[in-house]
Design a protein that fits this description.
heterodimer; A: about 130 residues; mainly alpha; Growth Hormone, Chain: A; 2 domains; about 60% helix; about 10% strand; B: about 210 residues; mainly beta; Dna Ligase, domain 1; OB fold (Dihydrolipoamide Acetyltransferase, E2P); five-stranded antiparallel sheet; five-stranded mixed beta barrel; 3 helices; 14 strands; elongated; RNA_pol_Rpb7-like_N_sf (chain B)
Chain lengths: ~130, ~210
Protein backbone atom coordinates (compact mmCIF):
# COMPACT_ATOMS: atom_id res chain seq x y z
CA UNK A 1 0.00 0.00 0.00
CA UNK A 2 1.46 3.30 -1.01
CA UNK A 3 0.12 6.78 -0.40
CA UNK A 4 0.38 8.75 -3.63
CA UNK A 5 -1.32 11.90 -2.42
CA UNK A 6 -2.34 12.31 1.19
CA UNK A 7 -4.93 14.93 0.37
CA UNK A 8 -6.03 14.89 -3.22
CA UNK A 9 -9.20 16.84 -2.52
CA UNK A 10 -11.35 17.94 0.41
CA UNK A 11 -14.96 16.77 0.48
CA UNK A 12 -18.08 18.35 1.94
CA UNK A 13 -20.25 16.26 4.23
CA UNK A 14 -22.94 16.37 1.56
CA UNK A 15 -20.71 14.62 -1.00
CA UNK A 16 -19.79 11.89 1.48
CA UNK A 17 -23.44 11.49 2.41
CA UNK A 18 -24.32 11.01 -1.25
CA UNK A 19 -21.64 8.34 -1.62
CA UNK A 20 -22.77 6.45 1.47
CA UNK A 21 -26.39 6.69 0.37
CA UNK A 22 -25.43 5.16 -2.98
CA UNK A 23 -23.58 2.31 -1.25
CA UNK A 24 -26.57 1.55 0.99
CA UNK A 25 -29.03 1.62 -1.90
CA UNK A 26 -26.91 -0.63 -4.12
CA UNK A 27 -26.44 -3.16 -1.31
CA UNK A 28 -30.16 -3.23 -0.63
CA UNK A 29 -30.93 -3.73 -4.31
CA UNK A 30 -28.55 -6.64 -4.65
CA UNK A 31 -29.55 -8.14 -1.31
CA UNK A 32 -25.91 -8.68 -0.56
CA UNK A 33 -24.85 -10.23 2.72
CA UNK A 34 -21.15 -10.59 2.25
CA UNK A 35 -19.64 -11.08 5.69
CA UNK A 36 -16.26 -9.93 4.44
CA UNK A 37 -17.74 -6.47 3.88
CA UNK A 38 -18.81 -6.23 7.53
CA UNK A 39 -16.48 -3.27 8.14
CA UNK A 40 -17.90 -1.35 5.21
CA UNK A 41 -21.42 -2.07 6.44
CA UNK A 42 -20.62 -0.87 9.96
CA UNK A 43 -18.97 2.30 8.78
CA UNK A 44 -21.62 3.07 6.16
CA UNK A 45 -24.40 2.60 8.67
CA UNK A 46 -22.85 4.67 11.48
CA UNK A 47 -21.50 7.46 9.27
CA UNK A 48 -24.74 7.69 7.28
CA UNK A 49 -26.70 7.89 10.54
CA UNK A 50 -24.44 10.62 11.90
CA UNK A 51 -24.60 12.69 8.72
CA UNK A 52 -28.35 12.23 8.35
CA UNK A 53 -29.30 13.03 11.93
CA UNK A 54 -26.70 15.50 13.09
CA UNK A 55 -25.68 17.53 10.06
CA UNK A 56 -27.56 19.40 7.35
CA UNK A 57 -25.85 17.24 4.70
CA UNK A 58 -28.90 15.27 3.43
CA UNK A 59 -30.72 18.42 2.31
CA UNK A 60 -27.73 20.02 0.57
CA UNK A 61 -27.57 19.72 -3.21
CA UNK A 62 -24.38 20.27 -5.18
CA UNK A 63 -25.97 23.16 -7.11
CA UNK A 64 -26.88 24.92 -3.87
CA UNK A 65 -23.36 24.42 -2.55
CA UNK A 66 -21.80 25.79 -5.75
CA UNK A 67 -24.13 28.79 -5.73
CA UNK A 68 -23.38 29.46 -2.06
CA UNK A 69 -19.61 29.29 -2.62
CA UNK A 70 -19.92 31.75 -5.53
CA UNK A 71 -21.95 34.14 -3.42
CA UNK A 72 -19.49 34.18 -0.51
CA UNK A 73 -16.46 34.93 -2.68
CA UNK A 74 -16.87 38.61 -1.87
CA UNK A 75 -15.89 37.93 1.77
CA UNK A 76 -12.41 36.56 0.92
CA UNK A 77 -12.70 33.54 3.19
CA UNK A 78 -10.20 30.70 3.09
CA UNK A 79 -11.14 27.31 1.62
CA UNK A 80 -11.25 25.79 5.06
CA UNK A 81 -13.63 28.48 6.35
CA UNK A 82 -15.90 28.13 3.32
CA UNK A 83 -15.98 24.35 3.77
CA UNK A 84 -16.92 24.72 7.43
CA UNK A 85 -19.69 27.16 6.57
CA UNK A 86 -21.18 24.56 4.25
CA UNK A 87 -20.75 21.69 6.70
CA UNK A 88 -21.95 23.49 9.80
CA UNK A 89 -24.59 25.93 8.40
CA UNK A 90 -24.32 28.54 11.15
CA UNK A 91 -27.58 30.18 12.16
CA UNK A 92 -26.29 32.85 14.55
CA UNK A 93 -23.43 35.38 14.58
CA UNK A 94 -21.56 33.62 17.40
CA UNK A 95 -21.29 30.49 15.23
CA UNK A 96 -19.82 32.55 12.37
CA UNK A 97 -17.26 34.03 14.77
CA UNK A 98 -16.20 30.52 15.75
CA UNK A 99 -15.71 29.47 12.12
CA UNK A 100 -14.00 32.58 10.72
CA UNK A 101 -10.59 33.46 12.17
CA UNK A 102 -10.24 37.05 13.44
CA UNK A 103 -13.84 37.64 12.46
CA UNK A 104 -13.98 41.00 14.27
CA UNK A 105 -11.22 42.40 12.08
CA UNK A 106 -12.22 40.85 8.79
CA UNK A 107 -16.01 41.14 8.73
CA UNK A 108 -18.39 43.84 9.91
CA UNK A 109 -21.63 42.95 11.68
CA UNK A 110 -23.52 43.64 8.45
CA UNK A 111 -21.29 41.24 6.54
CA UNK A 112 -21.79 38.55 9.19
CA UNK A 113 -25.54 39.02 8.82
CA UNK A 114 -25.19 38.81 5.01
CA UNK A 115 -23.34 35.52 5.45
CA UNK A 116 -26.09 34.17 7.68
CA UNK A 117 -28.72 35.26 5.15
CA UNK A 118 -26.85 33.44 2.36
CA UNK A 119 -26.66 30.29 4.50
CA UNK A 120 -30.38 30.52 5.19
CA UNK A 121 -31.10 31.13 1.50
CA UNK A 122 -29.17 28.17 0.10
CA UNK A 123 -29.49 25.78 3.03
CA UNK A 124 -32.86 26.44 4.65
CA UNK A 125 -33.29 25.16 8.16
CA UNK A 126 -34.99 21.78 8.26
CA UNK A 127 -34.78 21.91 12.07
CA UNK A 128 -33.54 18.39 12.66
CA UNK A 129 -29.90 19.44 12.60
CA UNK A 130 -27.86 22.12 14.42
CA UNK B 1 -13.70 16.62 7.90
CA UNK B 2 -13.50 14.19 5.01
CA UNK B 3 -10.89 14.20 2.33
CA UNK B 4 -9.88 12.10 -0.65
CA UNK B 5 -6.61 10.25 -0.37
CA UNK B 6 -4.98 8.84 -3.49
CA UNK B 7 -3.50 5.39 -2.83
CA UNK B 8 -1.81 2.67 -4.81
CA UNK B 9 -1.98 -1.02 -3.96
CA UNK B 10 -1.78 -4.47 -5.49
CA UNK B 11 -5.12 -6.24 -5.59
CA UNK B 12 -5.26 -10.01 -5.97
CA UNK B 13 -8.46 -11.43 -7.40
CA UNK B 14 -9.43 -15.06 -6.93
CA UNK B 15 -10.58 -16.92 -10.08
CA UNK B 16 -14.22 -16.98 -9.01
CA UNK B 17 -14.21 -13.18 -9.30
CA UNK B 18 -12.92 -13.11 -12.89
CA UNK B 19 -16.43 -12.98 -14.34
CA UNK B 20 -17.57 -9.96 -12.29
CA UNK B 21 -18.78 -7.00 -14.34
CA UNK B 22 -16.49 -4.01 -14.79
CA UNK B 23 -14.45 -2.98 -11.76
CA UNK B 24 -16.82 -4.43 -9.19
CA UNK B 25 -14.38 -7.07 -7.99
CA UNK B 26 -11.62 -4.49 -7.49
CA UNK B 27 -13.98 -2.16 -5.62
CA UNK B 28 -15.08 -4.94 -3.34
CA UNK B 29 -11.51 -6.03 -2.64
CA UNK B 30 -10.43 -2.49 -1.77
CA UNK B 31 -13.43 -1.89 0.49
CA UNK B 32 -12.83 -5.21 2.23
CA UNK B 33 -9.24 -4.27 2.85
CA UNK B 34 -9.55 -0.66 4.01
CA UNK B 35 -13.04 0.28 5.15
CA UNK B 36 -13.40 1.34 8.82
CA UNK B 37 -9.68 0.94 9.43
CA UNK B 38 -7.10 3.56 10.35
CA UNK B 39 -4.13 4.15 8.05
CA UNK B 40 -1.23 5.57 10.06
CA UNK B 41 -0.81 9.33 9.46
CA UNK B 42 -3.59 9.26 6.86
CA UNK B 43 -6.85 8.87 8.83
CA UNK B 44 -9.88 6.66 9.23
CA UNK B 45 -10.65 5.08 5.84
CA UNK B 46 -14.35 5.17 5.05
CA UNK B 47 -15.24 4.01 1.55
CA UNK B 48 -13.88 3.87 -1.96
CA UNK B 49 -14.50 6.99 -4.03
CA UNK B 50 -13.26 5.88 -7.46
CA UNK B 51 -10.63 3.84 -9.25
CA UNK B 52 -8.21 5.89 -11.35
CA UNK B 53 -6.13 3.23 -13.03
CA UNK B 54 -5.77 -0.55 -13.13
CA UNK B 55 -2.48 -1.85 -14.50
CA UNK B 56 -2.21 -5.09 -16.40
CA UNK B 57 -2.79 -8.28 -14.44
CA UNK B 58 -0.10 -10.83 -13.67
CA UNK B 59 -0.46 -14.45 -12.64
CA UNK B 60 2.35 -16.00 -10.62
CA UNK B 61 3.32 -19.67 -10.57
CA UNK B 62 1.57 -21.65 -7.84
CA UNK B 63 -1.00 -18.88 -7.26
CA UNK B 64 -4.23 -18.90 -9.25
CA UNK B 65 -5.09 -15.29 -8.38
CA UNK B 66 -4.54 -12.41 -10.77
CA UNK B 67 -2.53 -9.52 -9.33
CA UNK B 68 -2.81 -5.96 -10.60
CA UNK B 69 -1.63 -2.66 -9.29
CA UNK B 70 -4.57 -0.33 -8.76
CA UNK B 71 -4.46 3.44 -8.27
CA UNK B 72 -7.60 4.72 -6.50
CA UNK B 73 -9.04 7.42 -4.30
CA UNK B 74 -10.46 6.66 -0.88
CA UNK B 75 -12.66 8.80 1.35
CA UNK B 76 -10.77 9.36 4.59
CA UNK B 77 -11.99 10.96 7.79
CA UNK B 78 -9.33 13.32 9.09
CA UNK B 79 -10.49 16.69 10.40
CA UNK B 80 -7.90 19.43 9.95
CA UNK B 81 -6.48 21.21 12.99
CA UNK B 82 -8.59 24.14 14.22
CA UNK B 83 -11.63 22.69 12.46
CA UNK B 84 -14.94 22.98 14.30
CA UNK B 85 -17.09 19.86 14.60
CA UNK B 86 -20.39 18.95 16.24
CA UNK B 87 -20.56 15.71 18.25
CA UNK B 88 -22.29 14.02 21.18
CA UNK B 89 -20.93 13.55 24.69
CA UNK B 90 -20.18 9.85 25.14
CA UNK B 91 -19.05 9.95 28.77
CA UNK B 92 -17.45 12.23 31.35
CA UNK B 93 -14.65 11.16 33.64
CA UNK B 94 -11.57 12.59 35.29
CA UNK B 95 -9.69 12.47 31.97
CA UNK B 96 -12.16 14.97 30.51
CA UNK B 97 -15.17 14.86 28.22
CA UNK B 98 -15.24 12.01 25.69
CA UNK B 99 -17.06 12.96 22.48
CA UNK B 100 -18.43 10.64 19.82
CA UNK B 101 -19.35 11.20 16.19
CA UNK B 102 -21.17 7.87 15.84
CA UNK B 103 -18.64 6.39 13.45
CA UNK B 104 -15.62 7.78 15.34
CA UNK B 105 -15.43 7.70 19.12
CA UNK B 106 -11.88 8.61 20.08
CA UNK B 107 -12.24 12.31 20.75
CA UNK B 108 -11.29 13.72 24.12
CA UNK B 109 -11.62 17.22 25.51
CA UNK B 110 -9.12 17.37 28.38
CA UNK B 111 -10.00 19.38 31.51
CA UNK B 112 -7.68 22.29 30.65
CA UNK B 113 -9.52 22.81 27.34
CA UNK B 114 -12.96 23.14 28.89
CA UNK B 115 -14.58 26.51 29.53
CA UNK B 116 -13.09 28.14 32.63
CA UNK B 117 -13.89 27.49 35.40
CA UNK B 118 -15.14 23.90 35.14
CA UNK B 119 -15.21 21.15 37.73
CA UNK B 120 -15.93 17.42 37.72
CA UNK B 121 -19.03 16.30 39.59
CA UNK B 122 -20.13 12.76 40.32
CA UNK B 123 -22.67 13.47 42.99
CA UNK B 124 -25.92 13.05 41.05
CA UNK B 125 -25.24 9.54 39.77
CA UNK B 126 -24.38 10.74 36.29
CA UNK B 127 -20.77 11.97 36.11
CA UNK B 128 -20.58 15.39 34.52
CA UNK B 129 -18.27 18.33 33.95
CA UNK B 130 -19.91 21.53 35.09
CA UNK B 131 -19.03 24.99 33.84
CA UNK B 132 -19.60 27.69 36.45
CA UNK B 133 -20.51 30.61 34.18
CA UNK B 134 -20.27 33.90 36.04
CA UNK B 135 -22.85 36.33 34.68
CA UNK B 136 -21.94 38.95 37.28
CA UNK B 137 -25.44 38.67 38.77
CA UNK B 138 -25.96 38.55 42.51
CA UNK B 139 -27.29 35.00 42.38
CA UNK B 140 -23.81 33.68 41.72
CA UNK B 141 -22.51 31.75 38.68
CA UNK B 142 -24.82 29.65 36.46
CA UNK B 143 -24.07 25.95 36.72
CA UNK B 144 -23.96 24.50 33.21
CA UNK B 145 -23.38 20.72 33.17
CA UNK B 146 -22.03 18.66 30.26
CA UNK B 147 -23.58 15.19 30.49
CA UNK B 148 -23.83 12.05 28.40
CA UNK B 149 -25.99 12.54 25.32
CA UNK B 150 -25.55 16.31 25.09
CA UNK B 151 -24.64 17.66 21.67
CA UNK B 152 -21.69 20.01 21.59
CA UNK B 153 -19.55 22.08 19.25
CA UNK B 154 -15.79 21.76 19.70
CA UNK B 155 -12.57 22.67 17.91
CA UNK B 156 -9.95 20.04 16.99
CA UNK B 157 -6.62 21.09 18.51
CA UNK B 158 -4.43 18.03 18.18
CA UNK B 159 -4.34 14.64 16.52
CA UNK B 160 -2.56 11.70 18.15
CA UNK B 161 -1.19 8.80 16.15
CA UNK B 162 -0.11 5.54 17.75
CA UNK B 163 1.44 2.77 15.70
CA UNK B 164 -0.29 -0.32 17.09
CA UNK B 165 1.13 -3.81 16.73
CA UNK B 166 -1.01 -6.32 14.80
CA UNK B 167 -3.41 -8.24 17.09
CA UNK B 168 -2.51 -6.07 20.08
CA UNK B 169 -0.94 -9.13 21.69
CA UNK B 170 1.79 -9.33 24.27
CA UNK B 171 4.66 -11.82 24.15
CA UNK B 172 3.45 -15.47 23.87
CA UNK B 173 3.03 -17.24 27.22
CA UNK B 174 4.89 -20.44 28.02
CA UNK B 175 3.23 -23.64 29.26
CA UNK B 176 2.67 -23.75 33.02
CA UNK B 177 2.84 -20.01 33.50
CA UNK B 178 0.00 -17.84 34.76
CA UNK B 179 -2.21 -16.44 32.02
CA UNK B 180 -0.81 -13.18 30.70
CA UNK B 181 -1.93 -10.09 32.58
CA UNK B 182 -4.58 -7.98 30.82
CA UNK B 183 -3.20 -5.52 28.29
CA UNK B 184 -2.10 -2.35 29.98
CA UNK B 185 -3.71 0.96 29.05
CA UNK B 186 -0.91 1.99 26.72
CA UNK B 187 -1.44 -1.05 24.50
CA UNK B 188 -5.20 -0.46 24.31
CA UNK B 189 -5.01 3.15 23.11
CA UNK B 190 -6.57 3.81 19.73
CA UNK B 191 -4.38 4.27 16.63
CA UNK B 192 -5.92 7.65 15.83
CA UNK B 193 -7.47 9.99 18.34
CA UNK B 194 -8.24 13.66 18.55
CA UNK B 195 -7.98 16.24 21.29
CA UNK B 196 -10.57 18.97 21.25
CA UNK B 197 -11.23 22.28 22.94
CA UNK B 198 -14.39 24.12 23.95
CA UNK B 199 -12.59 27.02 25.61
CA UNK B 200 -14.02 29.77 23.41
CA UNK B 201 -17.24 31.74 23.03
CA UNK B 202 -19.53 29.76 20.78
CA UNK B 203 -18.08 26.35 21.70
CA UNK B 204 -19.54 23.86 24.14
CA UNK B 205 -23.08 22.56 24.32
CA UNK B 206 -25.28 23.77 21.46
CA UNK B 207 -27.94 24.76 23.99
CA UNK B 208 -25.60 27.23 25.69
CA UNK B 209 -25.39 29.43 22.60
CA UNK B 210 -28.75 28.95 20.88
CA UNK B 211 -31.01 31.94 20.65
CA UNK B 212 -33.89 30.35 22.56
Amino acid sequence: MQVVNECNQVLTNAEVYELLDGIRKSKRAVGQRNSALKNLATLTHTAHKFLAEQTPAPTQTSSAITAFLTDIRQFNLSRQEALQLVNLCPRSPVEVHVIVDDCDQRLTDEQVQMLLDLVAKWFPDSSNST
Amino acid sequence: MFLLCELKDIVALAPEKFGSPGLEAYEQALNEKLSNLVLHKVGLCCALWDILQVDEAHVFPGDARSHSQVRFRYVVFRPSLEEVLVGTVRKCDTDGVHVSLGFFDDILIPPDQLQHPSRFENSRGEPAWVWAYDTGADTGPHQLPMERGDRLRFRVVEELWRDVLPGGKQQPQQLGQQPAAPLDEAARLPPYSLLGSVNEPGLGLLDWWSDA
